[in-house]
Write a structure and sequence with these properties.
CATH class of the largest domain: Mainly Beta
Number of helices: 1
Low-confidence stretches: 136-144
Largest sheet: 5 strands, mixed
Mean pLDDT: 75
CATH architecture of the largest domain: Sandwich
Helix content: 10-25%
Number of domains: 2
Distance between the termini: 81 Å
Strand content: 35-45%
Oligomer: single chain
CATH topology of the largest domain: Immunoglobulin-like
C-alpha cells in the first residue's frame, strides 16, 4: 500500500486586508462565499517512493449534521480534483480549487478516493482507509495508531491544563484562607 496522506478544507479565497500591514492579500476563508461558492484546499504528501504524474482526489461535501449535500449548480456532490505533477517522492504540496460546489450549507468535505498515476506508467486507486486523511471531518480515518496518539496527546494536554487549573484554585483558596484568618485574628484583637 502506498503511503499517501491528504487533507481537504472547504472554503473560498478572497482579497482581504493583511494583518500588521497596510496592504491586501488573498486569504483562505473556511466558509462558503456570499454567493454560496465553495472551494477546496487540499494538502497532500507523496510517501509512495515513486514520482507521481497525476493525482486526482474524489471529494464529497457534508453539511453541519453530517449529510452529503449536492451543489445547487450542476446537482452533483462528488468532485474530482486533479493535480498535475511531477510530484516527487516525500514531497508535500498544497493546491486550491475554486468554484467546486455552490451550496451555503456545506461545512466540510471528505476525500473518498485518490487516483494516482505514476511517472513509470503504473496506476493505483486508493479508497478511504487505504490512505491517511488528516485535519478534516474524516480525520485520521484508516489509521488507528494516529487516532491513539491523537487521543493520548489530547489527554496529556487536558492533564497539563487541569493540573494548572487545580494549582491556581489551590493558590486562590490558600490566599482566601490567609485573608480570612487575618480578618478573624483582627476581629479578636
Amino acid at each position: 500500500m502506498s503511503r499517501i496522506e491528504a487533507c481537504v478544507v472547504i472554503g473560498h479565497e478572497e482579497l482581504a486586508r493583511a494583518p500588521l500591514t497596510n496592504g491586501y492579500k488573498n486569504r483562505w476563508f473556511k466558509t462558503p462565499d456570499s454567493a454560496g461558492e465553495v472551494g477546496a484546499k487540499i494538502t497532500y504528501f507523496n510517501g509512495s517512493g515513486k514520482q507521481i504524474k497525476y493525482i486526482t482526489f474524489r471529494c464529497v461535501p457534508y453539511n453541519r449534521v453530517g449529510d452529503i449535500v449536492a451543489s445547487e449548480i450542476g446537482d452533483r456532490s462528488s468532485a474530482l480534483l486533479e493535480v498535475t505533477g511531477p510530484i516527487k517522492s516525500n514531497h508535500t504540496g498544497t493546491v486550491k480549487f475554486e468554484n467546486v460546489w455552490y451550496n451555503r450549507t456545506i461545512e466540510s468535505a471528505i476525500i473518498e478516493e485518490i487516483f494516482v498515476q505514476y511517472m513509470d506508467g503504473s496506476e493505483e486507486t486508493l479508497r478511504k482507509g487505504e490512505f491517511i486523511i488528516y485535519g478534516s471531518k474524516g480525520s485520521a480515518s484508516g489509521n488507528t495508531f494516529l487516532k491513539i496518539i491523537t487521543f493520548i496527546f489530547g489527554l496529556l494536554l487536558f492533564a497539563v491544563f487541569d493540573i494548572w487549573g487545580i494549582l491556581a484554585c489551590a493558590i486562590a483558596e490558600g490566599i482566601y484562607f490567609i485573608i480570612k484568618r487575618k480578618k478573624i485574628a483582627d476581629s479578636n484583637t
